[in-house]
Amino acid sequence: MASVALALTAPSAGAAAPPASSLGCDAARGAVVDSLGTLTQRHGLAGAAVEVVDGRCGKWGAARGVADLGTGRPMNAKDRLRIGSVSKTFTATVVVQLAAEGRIGLDAPVERYLPGLIRGHGHDGRTITVRQLLQHTSGLPDHVEAFVDRPVNEWRHRHFEPRELIATALGLPRPDKKWHYSTTNTVIAGLVVEKVTGRGIEAEVTRRIIEPLALRDTYWPGDDSRIRGPHSRSYFRDADADAPDGTRSPRVDGTEWNVTFGGAGGALVSAPSDVGRFFGALLGGKLLPARWLAEMKRTVPADPDRLWPGARYGLGLIASPLECGGWWWGHGGTVPGGHRALGAVGPGGRSVSLALNEVPDTDRAEEDFHAVVNTAFCADRTEPTDRTDRTDHAKETP
Fold first, then answer.
1. pLDDT by residue (tens digit) across 145-161?
2. Considering 35, 85, 232, 234, which one is annotated as catalytic?
3. 242 Cβ partners below 8 Å, 6+ apart?
4. Which of the pair, 283 or 17, is modelled with greater confidence?
5. For the chain, where are the alpha helices, taking DSSP H only?
6. Strand partners for 341
7. Are the C-beta atoms of residues 93 and 293 closer than 8 Å to each other?
8. The pLDDT of residue 389 is above 70
9. 244 vs 88, 239, 249, 384, CA distance in Å?
10. Which helix or strand (DSSP H or E) is residue 318 part of?
11. Tens digits of per-residue pLDDT, 345-370?
12. 35 counts as catalytic
C-alpha cells in the first residue's frame, strides 16, 4: 500500500481570511487532521478528506491517506465522489419547493399523485403521505436490503427503473419500527415530482438547485458507471472472497458502479465543496422560504440502529447533537462501492463536508468517523462557550 499522505490546503481565493489573532483556527485544523489520521492509520481506511467553511477561520480543507491505492495519489478535499444518501436532501428540497408553490401537499396521500402504485403486503398509498415519505415514517421497506446480501456482481452493473425498485421493496417484510430508513421512500418522492412537473427528478434537481448554486462538480450519472472529472477511487471489502482465518476480506475497487439502484435517494456525484455550498444555501434560507425550511426541520426520533444515538430526522434532513452543545443539520450517505459523504451546518453557520473512499467496517471506526465531524465543529469552541451550550442545548429538541 502506498504511504499515508497528508494534505492541508490554505483558505481558497475569495474566502474570508482568518483573523490573525484566531489561534484557535490553527488548533482546530490540527485537531481535524489528527482525527482524519485516526481513520486512515488506526483503522486502515484508504483516504479521508474534509472541507470546512465559516466566517472566522475562512475556508480550508484537510486530507489524509490516498485517493488511489494503485498510484499513491494523495486524498484531496476537491475530488468528486459518490455522495449516496446525501442525494435524499436534494430530492426532498425540490419536493418542499413544490409544496411552497402549492403544487404538492406534504400531508396529501401518495395515491393522489401516483394512483395504484403502493398496494399489497399491508401497504396502501391512500394512507401514506408525502411527508411520511420524506420523514421515513411511511412504514415502507427499503429495497436496498434486497441487494446487500447478494453477490455484488449480480447487480453492480445493472440498470434499475424506479418502479422496479418500489416493487422489490413491497415484497420485503414489513418494518417493525415506526421510523424506518428507506431509500424507497425517496424514489417514490422522485416519481411524485415527475408526475407534478412533467420532468424527472434529475432534471428538476439540476434546474432548481445544481445550476442556480453553480455546483459544477455535482451531476446525476445515469447509467454511466464511471465518475467524470477528478475523483477519488473507492474501495470495499469483498465478503464473498476467501480470506485466511483472522484476516480481513480483500479490498476491491468499487469506483465503477451503476447507481440507478439508489435513484432519487442515492445516485448523485458531487464534491465536498459543492455539498457544503448546497447545505449552506439550504439552511441559510436561499432555497426555501423560512416557513418551508421550518417544515424540513420538524423532526422525529430516528432509530439509533439505522443512524446513531441522538439523531433525529426531518424532511430529508438529519439533526445530530454535538458534544460541545447545539446540533448540526445535514445528511450522510454511503454507497456499496466504498464512497461515503457527509455534509452539515452547525452553530454559527459553519459548514463541514466529509468524504471517505472506504467505509468504516467496525463500530469503533464508525465512532471515530463521527468524531471527525464533532472535532470539525467543536475543536475551536472556547471552554466558557462549551459549558453554556451544553447547558442551554441539552434540553433542546429540533
1. 999 888 898 999 999 99
2. 85
3. none
4. 283
5. 23-37, 87-100, 130-135, 162-170, 183-197, 201-205, 272-283, 290-296, 363-378, 383-393
6. 333, 355
7. no
8. no
9. 39, 12, 8, 52
10. strand 318-321
11. 999 899 999 999 999 999 999 999 99
12. no
